[in-house]
Design goal:
Blueprint lengths: L3 E5 L8 H14 L3 E4 L10 H11 L4 E8 L5 H14 L4 E6 L5 H7 L3 H20 L3 E4 L4 E5 L12 E3 L4 H10 L2 E2 L6 H17 L10 E6 L6 H10 L5 H4 L4 H13 L4 E6 L6 H11 L6
Parallel strand pairs: 1-2, 1-10, 2-3, 3-4, 4-7, 7-8, 9-10
Antiparallel strand pairs: 5-6
Helix pairs in contact: 1-11, 2-3, 3-5, 6-7
């Protein structure tokens, strides 16, 4: 397996040019595989596609990932052009993880899609993205979108762009097996990730598909000394049966050990996210590079 390690900003701000630009430069300089940005319309983080386009212009090697980009509420034809344009202008460095969006009424309101509609929206739009990147004239009649002989240009450099999904719920895992090219979960244990992979592969086999063994990864949130109290409360609400330390390794040795356990069960693509913004991103990235980047091979 090719182990690759990137960094996620999550929903943190860092949207000033100087701070964000330095972070991007440091990731490239230190040899990180990728930068990942999340989409939350009601939080301070920058729009992921705009910010990744900025990063593409500053770098030549760093890959550019979305963790995640919300699909419900988006027109797949418009999104296909935006993503293909970014892939071309970055020389094929786009990494794409799509999702339903946060379980937050404010986010649902902002995207204009009710909670019950998010899954069906993904089921219709995800296959359309592939078709719009590969077919000369797309015909489609569905509950949400209707196309006749539609052609979208430009085409992405990557043929195809792999479409990954997140999620841990059984329905999400089955959807990944039926429709997606990879899986990037978050807030889960290594054992849960291994069990989720088995569910995905069972669903893929039932649909006559196969997920590339290299296409399993995880977003790993870590803390340096203690898990912030706000995060402890959030985890307790979401996963009351688990000790927060099972989900958030504390200290860089524990982070490395967690990644090694993931590798042992067949996961190889990792997105690291600090539990709170460090005092110095440059120092944080240099420490991460020294302690966990040696796992890349």
């Amino acid at each position: 397996m090719k182990v690759r390690i990137g960094l996620a900003l999550g929903t943190q701000g860092l949207d000033d040019e100087a701070g964000y630009g330095t972070l991007v430069d440091d990731l490239e300089r230190l040899g990180f595989d990728s930068l990942w940005l999340s989409e939350r319309l009601t939080h301070n983080g920058p729009d992921p596609l705009v910010a990744l386009a900025y990063a593409a212009g500053r770098t030549r090697r760093l890959k550019l990932g979305t963790s995640v980009l919300v699909l419900p509420g988006r027109n797949p034809a418009i999104l296909a052009k935006e993503l293909a344009s970014l892939d071309r202008l970055s020389a094929g460095r786009l990494l794409l993880v799509l999702g339903l969006g946060a379980s937050d009424p404010a986010e649902h309101q902002a995207f204009g899609v009710a909670s019950r509609e998010r899954g069906p929206w993904v089921e219709e739009a995800l296959p359309l993205l592939r078709r719009l990147w590969t077919e000369d004239a797309v015909d489609h009649d569905g509950p949400r979108f209707h196309y006749r002989g539609l052609t979208v240009r430009p085409r992405p450099i990557q043929q195809p762009i792999d479409l990954w999904l997140g999620g841990l719920a059984p329905a999400a895992l089955r959807r990944i097996g039926r429709l997606a090219d990879g899986w990037l979960p978050s807030t889960c244990t290594v054992a849960e990730a291994a069990a989720g992979r088995a569910t995905i592969e069972e669903a893929a086999a039932a649909a006559g598909r196969r997920i590339d063994p290299e296409h399993y990864g995880a977003i790993v949130v870590y803390a340096r000394e203690t898990i912030p109290a706000a995060l402890v409360r959030t985890l307790a609400a979401r996963r009351p049966a688990l000790d927060p330390a099972e989900l958030v390794p504390v200290g860089l040795p524990a982070l490395r050990a967690t990644l090694e356990r993931y590798v042992a069960v067949g996961f190889s693509k990792f997105v690291l996210r600090p539990a709170e913004e460090p005092a110095s991103w440059t120092a944080e990235l240099e420490d991460l590079a020294a302690n966990v980047l040696p796992l890349q091979h």
